Amino acid sequence: MQAAGIHHVELILLLLLALVAVLAVIAKKVRIAYPIVLMMGGLLLSLVPHVPRISLNPNVFVLVILPPLIFSAAFRTSWRDFRENLFTIVMLAFGLVGFTIYGVALTSRWLLPGFDWKQGLVLGSVVAATDAIAATATAKRLGLPRRIVDILEAESLVNDGSGLVALKFTLAMLVTGVTPSIPAGILNLLYVVFAAVAIGLAVGLVIHIFQRHIHEAPIEITISLLTPYISYLAAESIGCSGVLATIACGLYLGRRSSDYFSLRARMEASAVWNTLDFILNGIVFLLLGLQLPLIRAGIETLSAHEVMLDGVWFSLIVIVLRLLWVYPGVWISRQIYRLLWHKEPEPFSRRSIFLIGWAGMRGVLALAAASSLPERLHDGAPFSNRNLIIFLTFCVIFATLVMQGLSLPPIMRALGLAGAAASQQERQWARRQMIVAALKALENLREQGRVEDAEIYDELDRYYRRQLVLLEDAPAPEREQSEHELLKRRQIAQQLRDIERSVALRLRAENQIHDEVLRHLERELDLLDARFGASQWGWE
Fold it and tell me: What angle in degrees, to the nearest 10, is found between the helix axes of 454-471 and 476-509?
C-alpha cells in the first residue's frame, strides 16, 4: 500500500504512539511520572503552528478507553487493603466528592460572575473525581508507604463512578430545570450504586465459571479483554453506573485470577494488560495536552486576563477543599471503624494525611466529563458558561496534575515518607513461610522415599536452607558466606545459560532448527533468568 493511500486518522494514530514512546523515555530519563511529561509534551506540541487539532471525543473515551483502564486498575487492587481501608476510601470517594461539589457550588457563585447554584453543582461534579495515575506512578518510584498508594488508587477508582453519577444528577437538574426530592434522589442513588455492583459481580461470576473450563491462553486473554466492556455495557443498559460495575467485576476477578487462569495465561496476560494500559494512558494524557487550542478557542470572547485569574483561583479552591476534608474525613472513618469492628484501626500520621490530600490530581476523565456537557438545555436555550466550565476544568487538571505532581517527590522526601520498604518486608516474610513449609514437606518426602534418592533430597535441602539463611537474621559470617555462594552459583549458571542461548541462535542461523523452536527455547531461558535473577531477594 502506498503512503498516500493511508488514511489520515491512521497517520495521526501512528504519530501519537510514536510520541508516547519518545516522551515516556524522556520521563524515565528525567525521573518524572510519565503522565506529567506526556501532558506537557502535548501542551508544547499544541503550540506548534499547523499541528492537526485533535479533539477528545468524550463518547470514545467513556465507551472505548475508560472500561479497560478501570478494569485493569481494579483487577490489580488488593482486596485485603481495600477492605481494611474501606471507610477511609468511602469518605474520600463519596464524602469528599459531595463536599467538593457543594464547596464549588458555594464558592463559584461569588467567584465566577454569571454562575448560579445549578451551574456550580455541575462544575463541582465535573472536577470532583481524582486521577491517581500520576500520583501513584511517582509514589511507587519513591517508595511511598503501600497503604497510602492503595488508598489513592482505590479512591480514584470508586470516585470515578461516584463523580459520574453525581454529574448525571446535577446535569439533569440543570438541563430539565427539575430538582428531585431528597428521598427520590437517595433512592435513585442507591439503585445506581447497588445495581451496578450487583451487575459487576454477576458478570465476574459468569466469567469466572466460564474461564475455568478454558485452558488456551490466547482465548483466556481475549475474554479478559472483553470483560470490562461486557460489565460496563450491561450496567449502562439498565441505567446504573457502568464504571462501578466494571470496578466490582475487576475486584472480583482479580481476587480469583489464580483459580481460573492457566499458567501461560497468567504470564502472558500481565504483559498484554501492561502494554494496553501504557498505550491507552499515554494517548489520553498526550491528547489532554493537545486540547489547549480547542479550549482556548472556546473562550475567545472572554477577557484572557479575567479567565486566567478565575482559573488560578478556582484551582486553589479545589485543592483547598480536598485538604480541608481529609483530616476530619480520616477522623470520621476511624470512629466508624471502631464502632463497627470494635477494635482500633491502624493510625495515620498527620504527614500521611497531608500527602493523601495533596495527591488529589485530576485527569482526563474530568475533561471528558466537561466536554460531554450539552450545548443546549431542555428548552432549547444555550448552555451558558459551558466553554468556561471546560476551561476551568483544564486549569484544575494542569494545576493538580502538573504543578502538584511535580511537587510531590520533594514533599514526600521532606515529610520523610519516601523510601519505605513495607512491601519488601512482607515479601521476605512470605518467602520465609514458603521455604519453611517446603523444608517440612521435603523431610516427609525423604522419609517416604527410596534410600538411593538420598542425594537428591540432600541437595534440595541444602538449596532451601541457603535461601532461608539469607532471609533470616543469621550471624554475619554465616550470612556473608551464603550470599557469596549464592552469588557465585548464579554467576556460573548465568554463564551456562548464555552458552545455551548462543548455541540455540547458532542452530537457527544454520537452519537446523525452526524459528518457533528457538522462541520456545529462548522463553525457557528467559524464565530461568527471571527466576534466578539477582532482584529475587531484593538485590539490584
Answer: 120
Structural domains of the chain, ranges and CATH numbers in brackets? 3-420 (1.20.1530.20)
Which 3 state secondary structure label does DSSP give 78? Answer: coil
Q: 420: which residues sit within 8 A by CB, 6+ positions away?
A: 143, 144, 145, 146
β-sheet bridge partners, residue 376: 382
Listed in sequence order, the residues at least 6 apart from 397 whose beta carbon sits closer than 8 Å to its beta carbon are 39, 288, 362, 363, 364, 366, 367
Q: How far is CA 79 from CA 74, 85, 96, 157, in A?
A: 9, 10, 22, 13
Strands (E), 316-457: none
* Concatenated DSSP letters of 9-75: HHHHHHHHHHHHHHHHHHHHHHT--HHHHHHHHHHHHHTSTTPPP----HHHIIIIIHHHHHHHHHH
Residue 293 contacts residue 46 (beta carbons within 8 Å)? yes
Digit-by-digit pLDDT tens for the chain (540 residues) are 455 445 677 888 888 999 999 999 999 999 888 889 999 999 999 888 888 788 888 888 889 999 999 999 899 888 888 888 899 999 999 999 999 999 999 998 888 888 888 899 999 999 999 986 776 676 666 667 778 888 988 898 888 888 888 898 888 888 877 777 778 778 888 898 899 999 999 999 999 999 999 989 999 999 999 999 999 999 999 989 899 999 999 999 998 888 888 878 888 898 899 999 999 989 989 998 998 888 887 776 667 778 888 899 999 999 999 999 999 999 999 999 888 888 888 888 999 999 999 988 998 889 889 988 988 888 778 888 888 999 999 999 999 999 998 898 888 888 888 655 456 677 777 778 888 888 888 888 888 877 677 888 888 888 788 777 767 665 556 566 666 776 777 788 788 888 988 998 988 888 888 888 888 888 888 888 777 664 443 333
Q: Which residue has the cell 485538604?
A: 323
